[in-house]
User: Fold this.
Amino acid sequence: MSPFVLTLYVLVWPVLVAGVLAVLCTAFGREAAEARREGRELV
Amino acid sequence: MPPADMDPPFGLLLTLGLLVLFYGGTFLMSARIGHKEENADSYMTAGHGIGFGVSAASMTATWIWASSMYASVTSGYTYGISGPIHYGLWGALMILFIYPFGRRIRKVAPHAHTLAEVMYARHGRSSQLMLAGSNVVGSVISLMSNFIAGGALISMLSPFSFVQGVVAIAAGVLLYTLWSGFRASVLTDFAQVVAMLGAVVVIVPALFLLLGGPSLFTEGAENLSPQQADFFSADAFLNQGAPYIAAVLAYAIGNQTIAQRLFAVREDLIKPTFVTATIGYGATVIGIGMIGVLALYAGITPAGGDPNNLLPQVAASYLPGVLLAVFFIMIIGSLSSTADSDLSALSSIAMADIYGQGVARRGGVDPKRMLFVGRLTMVVATAVAVVFASLQLNILDLLVFVGALWGALVFPVIASFYWGKVTNRAFTVSVLAALAVFLPVRFGAVPGTGLLPLLVEALAVVGVGVVLGLMVFGFLGTRPALVVGLLGSLASAPFVLGFLRDYQALTGSLVAYAVSTLVCWALSVRSATDFDFAEIGRRTGDFTDDAAAPAAPPADALSGARAEH
Assistant:
């Protein structure tokens, strides 16, 4: 594999992790807000 | 530069500060959980209705433990560029493959707390004992392993000793888990997953640049063997990937920490939770494993010749102060999230399977006493794990044993949720028979020549078919599973017969799958039993009448001691 492909191969994982992190944070924020609005515990 | 050659990068105050920051923060989070509605069911499953964000974060955090980060780096260093894939990808896919089984289990037992409890409802005491026993041993070993990882990290990066590190980690985890149990575990998992994933996003690119960036791949290419440089390395697949596929399927199916989240998440959110955890786990663990690949290209030699030292060694040698602190938090987060899940799993088993069903027989459950049993279990389990961790025992043999026990359980457990003919006798005998064959195979007691090793390899061929068939069965049903299993066995036979005997870990796992499947099938196929799966729902339910979950089906003789809704 060329250095360019290897660079992409190494760095694609942190990008994917960042995407998952964004999804989790968004969902958590939405659920926390809903729980607050409804006056109940988040868990 | 091996850590032994340098002063610890953290001082006493900084180490204490980071530990107080991490465990103080998680304790404050868990302290925000209200206790007005505290009851035994929410202590075990948070009322069966947690949302996607919390459950997906929790599933991801639980599945990523400190050992998986260390092992992925080791795999990258040992097997080269495909190494992290052969650790992380298969572990991630197993989360995905078990989700259809998870949906089925949740459907037949919507208000259960433990898988062992469901097995009791399905079969009886011996099946329950096998699942509960394997989980108790597995969770204590997992706790111990995480405490060892924490103690080793603290002793490597700070002036504290290994034992002081173990005690600090154990006290920190117990501090925030004890009071609210599973609720504290899942809520703090979110903060821990943010710390872990956030650290991966920063640390992997940082180390890539600090080790030389793209030019590293040109300058360090000579450090790789042809197999290490090959993305389709047979070495990596046979030594790392294949045994791991067999092992993690068993871990995912039999593990109470996963089952507990399955029973806790809102039923319609099981699929997105599992899919997100699959991607989150895979990207995180493979990403961290890239540090092993980079270290290989950079020609770094592991301290003491042990590749397990590589991750903290590279971090301590190359990361600047702030990023090293981020790395420290990442590892502490990964081991704490798994350790708190193990404590919650152990307490649930003690509450539901030991106290709940033991007392139910005598006619009454006291929810407050049940909570006390759960908390006491956490304290005792932590103490036991600290003692074993302090002895720095080699945990590999115990892990192998638990892995095999779960491997032997996979087919009987799955079949018990779909096939009404499976009896308690078939379940128990098949698991015991699988273990009886597994042990001599795994520990090299089978001679290397003659007919016997060939017979073992023939069983391993069947095991390949069973693993592949089970993966397909969850998504597509019996017929495609049989076709894929048969084709998988036929295709693998030329590569297994006369060859696999050199790979005892892989052979042992496959044999455990094969024997448990063959015996369970043989004892069940002619059975006149036709179990009504609705019975499981009627026999499992909430223990308290103020749980947030909707009413369980009417109680029968077994669940008579449970709450009548």
Notes: The two ends of chain A are 47 Å apart (CA to CA).
